Amino acid sequence: MKIVIVSDTHGSRKNIENVCECNPDADMLIHLGDVEDDEDYIEAIFECPTHIVGGNNDFFSRLPREEEFDLEGHHIFITHGHAYYVSMGEAHLQEEARRRGADIVMYGHTHVPALTIDADLVTLNPGSLTYPRQQGRQATYMVMKLEKGKQPEVELKTV
Q1: Vertex 116, ends 110 and 120: CA angle to 5°?
Q2: Residue extents of the structural domains in the chain
Q3: NCBIfam families, alphabetically (predicted)?
């Protein structure tokens, strides 16, 4: 299963359209918040199931703030991350993910890509497609390949 993971598009469509064009074989799209009213558009251009959570800039959105679901034998917890103080580190979020029995947790908010692989938990942030903050300021997203009984494979991609 190929999962495209994005975050922090902030209403800009150019890079999300590029991601869609580069991944026509995506089995799922996960958006980790700060969509800014583009959720219907994003769901329409991707021809696969989507999971989209609301971020701190999705003020009047009806998007859920977090979701949990199972895929290919993995329990996944997704959130924008601001409620777990991710700008100060991943510890609170990882603690909550473990409490929920997740073995994969995804977040956004920081606009900086991150990947932490522990024995019991994969923690990832795809960065931002619109306002990247890491050195080089390159727009990024991630592609995760999931297969039952195997460790997830995660690749950071640039737009």
Answers
A1: 130
A2: 2-158
A3: yfcE
Residue showing tokens 């009213």: 37
Strands of the sheet containing 2-6, edge to edge, are 50-52, 28-31, 2-6, 140-145, 153-158
Whole-model pTM: value is 0.98
**Residues paired with residue 106 on neighbouring β-strands, in sequence order:** 78, 124
Distance from the first to the final alpha carbon of the chain? 21
Q: pLDDT (tens digit, 9 = 90+) per residue, 64-93? A: 999 999 999 999 999 999 999 999 999 999
Burial degree of 109 (CB within 10 A; 0-12, 13-18, 19+): buried
- The top-level CATH class assigned to 2-158 is alpha beta
Strand ranges across the sheet with 66-71: 66-71, 74-79, 104-106, 122-125, 114-117
Phi, psi of 41 (to 5 degrees): -65, -45
- E strands present in 53-127: 66-71, 74-79, 104-106, 114-117, 122-125
